[in-house]
Specification:
75% of the residues lie in helices and 0% in strands. By secondary structure, it is mainly α. The chain has a single domain, classed as Up-down Bundle (Heme Oxygenase, Chain A), CATH 1.20.910. The protein is globular, with a radius of gyration of 17 Å.
């Protein structure tokens, strides 16, 4: 029996899970977390701010192709853009509650994360963005993380809205993505584009977490 595209993607991503989980564990260790958490928020802000523009550009590129699969994918990207809209505002509010603000210069790994997707949308195929989304939403905060962070850091509960909301939302978003991917049933080259994008994203996200965990300035 042939694996569905979503199962094939999950299988390819499975080896990355251990490294990502280990990086997250180091990021969220109690020692120094009070200072590290605002740096995490500041790094995530430009990444989340890029989400809606990426989705909208991918939808535009799909519309240019004007075939049934591309129209279906464009509709998904537009719908998901609506679901992600204003999440960057949550991060600004969290930063303010934590007594911090966004960084003047984005973390270089964040630039690479978002920038790679612009390249793939423009020069490969907009379907590749599905791999990026699958990794980010497949590694969303756990349901108890916000309360644990609040307890360890002593920061007010209002500093953890983004963590709390994404823990609740991203599982459903991931299920929706897998349904769309299976309905699209991309040809082999399309599935390769999705999986390569996903594997690259998983590697970069691991690097980002380790960088934020290791360096006081949060940069490599």
């Amino acid at each position: 029996m042939t694996a569905t595209p979503s199962l094939a993607l999950r299988t390819k991503l499975s080896p990355t899970a251990t490294a990502l989980a280990a990086a997250a564990a180091v990021l969220w260790r109690p020692e120094g977390l009070r200072e590290r958490y605002p740096r995490y928020l500041a790094a995530m802000y430009p990444l989340v701010r890029a989400s809606v523009p990426l989705l909208e550009r991918a939808a535009e590129r799909c519309a240019e192709r004007d075939d049934p699969a591309s129209r279906r994918l464009a509709a998904y990207y537009r719908r998901h853009a609506g679901e992600e809209r204003d999440h960057d505002t949550w991060l600004l509010e969290d930063l303010a509650a934590a007594g911090a603000g966004p960084s003047a210069v984005p973390h270089p790994v964040v630039v690479e994360l978002a920038g790679a997707q612009y390249y793939r949308i423009e020069h490969e195929h907009p379907v590749a963005l599905l791999g990026y989304i699958a990794v980010l939403e497949g590694n969303a905060p756990g349901p108890r993380l916000a309360s644990r962070l609040a307890e360890v850091t002593g920061l007010p509960g209002s500093a953890f809205r983004t963590v709390r909301e994404h823990a609740a939302l991203d599982g459903g978003h991931l299920d929706d993505l897998y349904r769309v991917l299976d309905a699209l049933a991309p040809p082999p080259d399309g599935q390769t584009a999705v999986s390569v994008s996903a594997l690259h994203t998983a590697n970069l996200l691991t690097r980002l977490f380790l960088s934020l965990a290791a360096d006081p300035g949060g940069h490599p």
